[in-house]
Amino acid sequence: MADAGMLRFHVPEPEVRPGGTPDFSNVQIPKAGSVPRPDIDVDPRTIRDHAFSIIRVLNRNGEAVGPWAGLLSSDELLAGLRHMMTLRTFDARMQMAQRQGKTSFYMQHLGEEAVACAFRKALEPGDMNFPTYRQAGLLIADGYPMVTMMNQIYSNEADPLKGRQLPVMYSSKEHGFFSISGNLATQYIQAVGWAMASAISNDSKIAAAWIGDGSTAESDFHSALVFASTYKAPVVLNVVNNQWAISTFQGIARGGSGTFAARGLGFGIPSLRVDGNDYLAVHAVAKWAAERARNNLGPTLVEYVTYRAGAHSSSDDPSAYRPKTESDAWPLGDPIVRLKNHLIQLGVWSDERHAQAEAEILDTVIAAQKEAESHGTLHAGGKPSTRDMFEGLYAEMPPHLRRQRQQAGV
Amino acid sequence: MPRRTMIEAIRDAMDVSMGRDSKVVVFGEDVGFFGGVFRCTQGLQAKYGKSRCFDAPINESGIVGSAIGMAAYGLKPCVEIQFADYMFPAYDQLTQEAARLRYRSNGDFTCPIVVRMPTGGGIFGGQTHSQSPEALFTHVSGLKTVVPSNPHDAKGLLIAAIEDPDPVIFLEPKRLYNGPFDGHHDRPVTPWSKHELGEVADGHYTVPLGKAAIRRAGSALTVLAYGTMVYVAQAAVEETGIDAEIIDLRTLLPLDLDTIVASVRKTGRCVIVHEATLTSGFGAELSALVQENCFYHLEAPVARVAGWDTPYPHAQEWDYFPGPARVGRALIETMEA
Q: CA of A9 to nearest chain B CA: how many angstroms apart?
């Protein structure tokens, strides 16, 4: 046998580091409209290519083209644009509020607004999302009050979670938004369980699981795919590939696998990749996956190809690990600009109306912020009571907690 | 009244609960068609169908994680981890998710699940079929932890756990599945059919969580025990002739502190017995509570008899398992102290 020599340890590296010129030449972008739209009852084995391509609707001229186009009216698209703009403005104001010391922490969605905002519109009332910390677009697009979101971020006296949770870890059963946990990937298998429960109960509701590219490496990602596959659970398994897990580029989680969508193929789950910065494509694919689930055809895995344009969180400085201008070079562009151009191309929008809408939205967000701040911020004004710290752990407070509450003098 | 083994009592508790409430679902590894490796779910799938009782992939985190999602939907999952030794892949879901869901969502979502796990040693189970991980659950705020010691309690506590609105860890001492065991491994084991606590009523009843039971009234010393150690303590008391009061805690959290404190204030002495390893075991919490609440009544240091601080060995089973001889020595030393 020939001498194989010494083994060498492999650690993937991103193409470029700070100081380098951003390079996305390795990201293959198919033409808009070029990926076929299969029937929802398709045999997963026949659409394996969908896990390696990218479904896109909006072309460079802002036109909606191909088999995934034509699902949304211009009014629905205008509403979608407003949701994304609202989320971006909300993010900017809350990021600033964090810098001003009004809260301890914030996480933006910059560049990823289309994913959750468009997805929400593919669901029906009663469906349940199991989001990560970067899907507030689900709440915005469903009309959840911004003031309540801010109250949670400020941990003030009106915080629906009584100051117990870190900022952005919202919860709203009413709006189909499961309580966010700091522990990554745990909600992915919970979503599958929720979907199994709906099927067990012969209900018509479906679940949506959410995870980032980095967290697909967690074992609960695998658990979710196994259970979803075994029980054909009515769930849409969303992977938001924004290229970065804090400082770690997506190749660390993905390894030698071509795409995250390809992970689903080994489980026999139909898996698609979609342009995450294309509102129309995200919505069309989400709708396809939701219909599959609702028709008892089982789970679908969807990888949204996007880019985390902002810092990971208010505690992060991306210039330490990636070029400052990398987001400008991202080939799928900005989701708001692309939808805006499409609406202008349709003749239902203009630069002037866009500027006007930006000003209106900023006024609305500032008004909400004023109202929220009237209930207090983290270090000033009204706050949840110390008593709230002991409440609500169990349905009924056990004796040892009653004793501790007394010791705390509340 | 009919007599049942602990296995039959546990199965009956799930049968009764599934019959009363269509939201109760039972699943886990080998739990469905086969009826469980310990037969605890035998016949449930045939009776209630595959939507209510089914086999799960070998994935503890998946079993508990999916149960949490089901509970958030509105079902009441009663799931099984085949051995408590194998709960560790699910520990994240149990401690960070199930335990916290009500609190972190301010009641928006709740988690009424029961996680059954065969626990404890004395069966030549070696390192991964003998562990007693209860302290890893009692340390977690938001969970309840239950350890029955007999068929009557097992059924009543399990029905109470299934009906409880919060997540319950239900640890079943597998050494007690077929009969009580006092640690005398050289003697034949008597089946539950010969024991009064093997009397298990038909139909629905509950044993409330958070309430201890006094197994033997006494005045000289208080023994705090649960699971298999209740019978080991009884044997040690008979063999030493010490008039000890034996308290079977039944629920470790929430703990019935009132019963414990009343007993130790009466006897002035306390011996704590558990199979789990000593250091940072649940006995440390019990000892601290007794010391805090009974300091002026104590006539001797609180003693602990526990498993040694080693992994559970195979060949040395009876050198490891805290048997009646070791417990008896602690009783005598505490009386002489």
A: 28
